Amino acid sequence: MLTKIWRFLKRDPLRRGVALAFAILLYLHLNSQLTTENRLVRVRVPVTLLLESGLQPPAGNMPEIGITLRGKAGAEFHPGNVQANVKVNHSNRQPDGSYAVKITPGDIRIMDKKFHIHSIDSPAGGILKLALLRKGERYAKVRPVFDGTVPPGMQLSCEIIPDQVLITGSEDVISKLQYVHTARIPLMDAPEFFEFDTQLALPAQVSADPNRVLARVKLIRQFSRRSMRLPVSIMTNPEHNMETSIAAPPPGGVELILRGPAAKLAALTPNQVRLFVDAVGIAQPGRRRLPIRCHINAPEIELVSIVPDEVEIQLTTNTSK
To answer: What is the spatial distance between Cα 198 and Cα 182, in angstroms, rounded to a whole number?
Structure first.
């Protein structure tokens, strides 16, 4: 080969030397171009999963793949110019319950034409393993959750409309949900009846239809009973000049049963309750059987019963001057 080049140059050394030098420079230039086009860039690309109906994406971060791109020297690479979209269906399910799908160059889209795929580096063998969840649905009862406390002497009643909803999510989650909760319903300064439209407080990756419910809340006054024993007084007209007494007073006084809000009933004192018989209209001496009456000086307290409910009184003319 060198002998042929030497014979070629001997025939016309000047022109043929220039031609040879030009050919060498052209070769070096083309070789440089080929070398710079083989610049490699390694990137990690998030994978968008195109899931078949009935599958849910895995919890946590999106899966990623590692790839190597080939491009020209000096070309600026932007990671956002690469996308990976992978279809997953039930046929990708493995015996252990996971899903495995083969990543191919056809799943990768490069928007910058200065770069093209060189290799898929990870996962190993291009096999992407996924912990997907299968979707399920069932009806679950709705339970209200309240913010605040029930006022003393009140009882809480709440009706939820609707009282159950259709929940959808991964089978392993919704199978354990016997009920779902509302968001907190405020009780601070609440009236005795109010309606509250509220969202549902759902676990992650669980949805509900509907996802809002109406709470009808009642604060019902709590009533209780209390027994008391009190003496009976007699009311007379002073102008009739009569002396009175109870013929056979009940031992320990008359028993009465009162009803009212628990807190107010507990705070009631004997001085706020008066038992009496009305003899104001009687002007003649003798014995009379009269009903026992009750006066209660406390709001929301009412009489249930008196035992006995009447007594016999003795009226005599007052002869003293």
So the answer is: 7
The answer to whether 199 touches 160, Cβ cutoff 8 Å, is: no
The residue type found at 153 is: G
Residue 136, pLDDT above cutoff 60: yes
Q: Which two tokens stand for residue 291?
A: 């009903």
Residue 36 tokens read as 């710079």
Cα–Cα distance measured from residue 26 to residue 19, given in angstroms and rounded to the nearest whole number: 11
- Which amino acid does the sequence have at 292? I
Say what angle helices 2-11 and 13-37 make with each other, to 10 degrees.
130
- Give the count of beta carbons closer than 10 Å to the beta carbon of residue 253: 14
How far, in Å, CA of 222 to CA of 156, rounded? 9
> Do β-strands 99-102 and 223-230 pair in parallel, antiparallel, or remain unpaired?
unpaired
pTM greater than 0.70 (yes/no) = no
- The model's pLDDT over 258-314, given as tens digits with 9 standing for 90+, comes to 998 888 888 899 999 999 999 888 888 889 899 999 999 998 899 999 999 999 988
Structure tokens at 181: 């909760």
Radius of gyration of the chain (CA): 48
AA identity, residue 208: A
